[in-house]
Design goal:
Blueprint (H helix, E strand, L loop, with lengths): L4 H16 L13 H11 L5 H9 L5 E2 L2 E3 L2 H16 L25 E6 L5 E5 L10 E6 L3 E3 L8 H13 L6 H6 L2 H4 L5
Antiparallel strand pairs: 1-2, 2-3, 3-4, 4-5, 5-6
Helix pairs in contact: 1-3, 1-5, 2-4
């Protein structure tokens, strides 16, 4: 998927949520400025993956994906820096990671290669993995849970573009047109690829 597809997907998702989403759902924030994205890159010490840059430029946080909402550029850094600090302090040293027999993710509770882009109300994150396991792919999606650490989706781990496309495909399928159906669906269901 080309990078220019992200703004189009966000536009479709926002329009769908405005028409079919629950009444309490608020629209996402306007896109991040180039200055905000440059500041985030400086804070991270690396360039953003182009697809995440496109997402933040289209909506600087608050785009609903089930129980998750995308993070603003400032919140991407805030979450990433906090978890890096906690890892450096040894707070996760005794935590065991669920085994990943496929070798897609590293056996670390948290590592700086996880770049969060969405969060739920419990602090669980959806991250782009910039430093995957030996069989993983740079840019794959990792679900990071506060009580369980990094988790591998059983259907494989798509890149962010595939993740957002699957979300849109599920919304456009008509299966979630009733607000209560969307409201009760989990983000993993909403982003699972259609058969």
């Amino acid at each position: 998927m080309c990078e220019t597809a992200i703004p189009r997907l966000v536009t479709h998702i926002v329009a769908w949520l405005a028409e079919h989403g629950p009444e309490w759902l608020s629209p996402p924030n306007p896109g991040a400025s180039e200055a905000a994205l440059a500041q985030l890159e400086a804070q991270l010490g690396r360039e953003l993956p182009p697809i995440l840059r496109d997402l933040l430029h289209a909506a600087d946080g608050e785009l609903a994906i089930g129980e998750y909402k995308t993070l603003s550029a400032a919140d991407v850094y805030r979450n990433w820096a906090l978890l890096n600090r906690l890892a450096a302090e040894g707070r996760f040293a005794n935590r065991e990671v669920y085994p990943d027999d496929r070798g897609l993710i590293r056996a670390d509770w948290w590592h700086p290669g996880y770049l969060p882009f969405a969060e739920d109300s419990c602090g669980n994150l959806i991250c782009i993995d910039l430093d995957p396991g030996p069989q993983g792919s740079v840019g794959q999606i990792v679900w990071w849970e506060t009580a369980e650490g990094p988790l591998v989706d059983n259907d494989g781990i798509p890149a962010l573009a595939d993740f957002l496309q699957a979300y849109w495909d599920n919304l456009a399928s008509g299966a979630y047109d009733a607000p209560d159906v969307w409201d009760n669906a989990g983000a993993q269901d909403l982003t699972r690829r259609l058969p």
